[in-house]
Amino acid sequence: MTVSPPLVDVEPLPVEDKRHEPFLVLGVETSCDETAAAVVANGVAVLSSVVSSQVDLHARFGGVVPEIASRAHVELLTPVMAEAMVEAGIEGGADAVAATVGPGLVGALLVGVSAAKALSIVWGVPFVGVNHLEAHLYAAFLEEPDLKPPLVALIVSGGHTLLVEMRDHGRYVQLGSTVDDAAGEAFDKVARFLGLGYPGGPAIEVAAADGDPEAVRFPRAMLDDRFDFSFSGLKTAVINHVRKHPDASTADIAASFQAAVVDVLVTKALRAAVEVGAELVCLGGGVAANGHLRTALAEACEDRGLRAVLPSRAMCTDNAAMVAAAGWWRLRAEGPTPLDVGVYPTLRLPVG
Ligand code: KG4
Ligand code: ZN
Questions:
Q1: What is the CATH number of the domain that holds 215?
Q2: Atom of ligand 1 nearest to the CA of 184
Q3: Could you say which of 159, 185, 200, 267 would form a disulfide bridge with 181 (CB–CB 3.0 to 4.6 Å)?
Q4: Within 13 A of 285's CA, how many CA atoms are on the CB side?
């Protein structure tokens, strides 16, 4: 994010002085195909969380169409924000407005960021730009308000697969990431190949429920390497297997594929926690909604005497409550984001 002088003067925020009363952040999320708004008090208490999914608009294309996503955000965002405010019981404005500035689709991001800046001007409250990846990590803090770093976080979404050591709020060390496809991308591509539809993750999970996870031993790429991931070879292995065995059960293939992804994710997350000496392992991102991953991580952590923090499924997939939570922490740490900040489609997690 660039830092430059604000175009509009916003009073510095007396966040510390307001500790005794709820500080309400309106979060706005439009980085991909969910139009979302939420109100979160003091970074941890979700007063409302409204998500309008565009899945139906994109399903027939088998993936998100950026221009359709932007136009849908324009139509949906105002009613979604209004609903979030009404559900939270707020009549005036919130105390700050946070919006995802990246990574994501440029047009989609611009819709949410522009609306959030406009509201911050109208209400005379700070605007805060939020990194979507950091927001996924902060979903864990909504689950467990007393959570304290250091911890290891596994962020697995449609666009990213990240293993991160969180040393403190805003202080991250990236331990590993994918060298090719993201975990969610692999779910989506394999689901499309198997004819299971879009989005692929939930479709694979449903199909896998009736299958045998040991039916096919798909490769666990880079399992012995340290913390990076690779899922592209696994996708190819699934395609090759199905072409060779056209009568193979789709349920068995889905279950065996899911088992391979989960095996690698859990093995590396546990290895990371042990190596950095973290006692907490947090999950985040859409793939973290996967029941098999959640169970496997929880069991592996229990075996090792570690604690797994699993945000509710609704807080794993894209939502604005996680944006409001991350925004609250950023505001405390850095103050408001200048209003001339742009959007950053390839924004990375700030490390160091
Ligand atoms: O975090 P998210 O909602 O959006 C991004 O930031 O990308 O993640 C979306 C991804 C998609 O690839 C979707 O297929 C995957 O999360 N996903 C799942 C499940 N639910 C969503 N993957 C596996 N199992 C699920 N239940
Ligand atoms: Zn996401």
A1: 3.30.420.40
A2: 12
A3: 185
A4: 25
